[in-house]
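Task 17 of the worksheet. Students: predict the tertiary structure of the chain below and write it out as structure tokens. Keep your answer in the requested format; marks are given for formatting as well as content.
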Amino acid sequence: MTLHEKGIKWTSHHLDLLREENITSEYFAIHPKGLVPTLVHDGTVVIESTDIIHYLDETFPNPPLKPNDNKEKAEVFRWLEHAANNHMCVKTYMFGNLVGTKYRKGKLDLARYRELQKDQELRTFHEKNSSPKGLPKKSLSAAEKTMHTCFQELDNVLGRKQWITGETFSLADITWVPLYVTLNSAGFPFNDYQNVNRWKKMIQKRPSYSKAILQWLPKGLMADN
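Model answer:
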């Protein structure tokens, strides 16, 4: 969405995660956790989603996606960090309610993953997901509770503002779109969050949403109910 909002020309290199095209020594040499996305620009590699969109906004400043007001700008960074800190909760909910069985690894695949993956949190996550019982119900319940807390906070904020940090669409809005789409695809109950749903409808009207979200969703995943 950031690339499209700024009109930046870019080349996509699609990796099929179900075929584990990201679980190779070549890709881990680029991204040490083997996750997507990765941005490579003029020899600079940026690997975290929030870092990527911040990098794009700094490197290609027009049109700006951060407000001029310092207080609102600080809120943008707070919401970016908030999204990044809850990545594993979103991942847990998504795997537990939609794709967990598809991404379970056999013994050989798990051994190869252990060899490449140095991040203990991700190793433990995939070991549990690939076990006969799958992810523990306690983990799923905790993840759901955390996400309700996050979206209740977001709903409260959007009750006072048009966009997350004020009257201007910003990186804060962009960084929460994938969380909404991912959780909604996995059946997260958003019905009670009226302000989030109003915000979602405004997001869906932006051309960048269609280009960045709708055209890239895997078959079987829905961007909205």
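Marker's comment: Strands lie at 39-41, 44-46. The mean pLDDT is 93.
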